[in-house]
Amino acid sequence: VVSGRVERFEDDNIVVSLGKAEALLPHLHKLENDHFKIGSPINAYILEVRKPNRGIYQIILSRTHPDFVRCLLEKEIPEITEGIVKIKEIARFPGDLVKVAIFSTDPKIDPVGTCLGEKATRIKNIMRELNGEKVEVILWDKDISKYILNSLSPATGKKVIINERKKEAVVVVEDSQIFLAVGKRGQNVRLASKLTGWDIRVVRESEYEAMGKPAIAVIEGIDEKVATELAKYGYSSIKSLAEADVEELKKIPSIEEGMAEQLIMKAKEYREKMIKENNESK
Question: What's the whole-model pTM score?
Answer without folding.
Answer: 0.75
